[in-house]
Amino acid sequence: MDIPRNLSKCHSGMLPILYLAVLMANQQELAIYESRIYTPYLSEEQIERFLKRPDEFTVQRFRITGLNQSIHELYSSTLYNDGKQRSILALAKPIAKMVLKLPSYTQTTQVGLSSRAQAVRNVFKLSKSPITLMLEELPKALAIDLDKARNDENELKKLSKRLMDTLRELQYCLPNLKDQFREMLAQAFSQDKGIELVDLRVAVAGRCRGLEEYTIDRDGLKAFIQRALKSTDEPEQWLDELLSFLGQKPAGKWGDAERDAAEYRLVELTRKLAELERLRLHYQDHATKTAGDFDVYLLRSVKKGAPDYDEVVVIDERRHNAIKTIKAKMLATLIDADEELKMAALAELVDEVLAESRESTKTMPVTKAARVKRVN
Questions:
Q1: Are 17 and 38 in contact (CB under 8 A)?
Q2: What is the strand order of the sheet 309-316 is part of?
């Protein structure tokens, strides 16, 4: 029953304070609503509003009987297992508080949770009554047939197991997301997917160290490398900063769109890192053989229905002088063509030359030229 349906007559004097004292003393039996919305706990701000506008608040007292009593007892033993009986409100409040304070990602994701976990999450967000929530909406979200449960104790036990499994899934949704990206990082850097985060950080930093000198992409590749090399006391903080960079916001605030974008960006950045490693390898190898300036190019061709080809080309001063005549003739031939025809001619030419040079070589699917300039 309600006591009372609203508190509109409590505007003055000590009555609001007395009502508040009664609410706090009987909070195990009384549900509190502000503007018809159930609130598991009264915050300091809500207490201040209550003292000023008690008419905005209503309370309700609950008594449990019949099958509902069996579900009530099951909740109590499932959540605490200490032999003590608690009111339905005492059981609803901590669960509601936990669910409603889940990270934004857990609150919104459609791909990071099972359909059952999503249903449970949503009933906590939409329910307006704790008794309806615990005795009707939550069992329904857990796919429990209450009519069957009247005569089948196993159905009640199934409710207990599904509740605990679902609450665990909700709590570990964000940690699981981070662990999935840890595995993707491990795979991208040729590490075992079960590698510990502290060891993964060392492996990634080892691969990235020095590569920042080979790119001018300050907001993309270089920024990723700098974060990968960043030294922090906690490996989890290192991973959090990488994920914040990949998704453009902390992982806890992602939606599914940010998750997809972060995964795509990780694939692209690690592919580019592999390219930089190849450039560095050829650069360092050639640097031991010559004292002059040289350029290193990565040529790549990808065509539908054909193998991918790529080749690293080093051009020093001697080779640069040797190709001047050839390059001049090619440019003269293309001078009257529009930009689209120039690109088409170069695309086919590069593809044919690479195919002839390395016909059987297959590489990553992007057409690109990259360049590194040595500075003495």
A1: no
A2: 309-316, 294-301, 369-373
- Whether the CB-CB separation of 114 and 143 falls below 8 Å is answered with no
pLDDT at position 17 is 67
**HSE-up (13 A, CA, CB side) for residue 176:** 13
Are 263 and 184 in contact by the 8 Å Cβ rule? The answer is: yes
Residue type, 236: E
Note the Cα 98 to chain centre separation in Å: 19
DSSP letter (8 states) at residue 2? B
Going 33 to 37 to 40 to 42, the CA torsion angle's sign is negative
Would you state the CATH architecture of domain 15-61?
Answer: 2-Layer Sandwich (3.30)
Report which residue type is found at 76: S
Average pLDDT on 3-20 reads 55
Q: Determine if the pTM surpasses 0.85.
A: no
Q: Please list the residue range(s) of the chain that carry CATH number 3.30.1490.
A: 15-61
| Token pair belonging to 302 | 């990808």
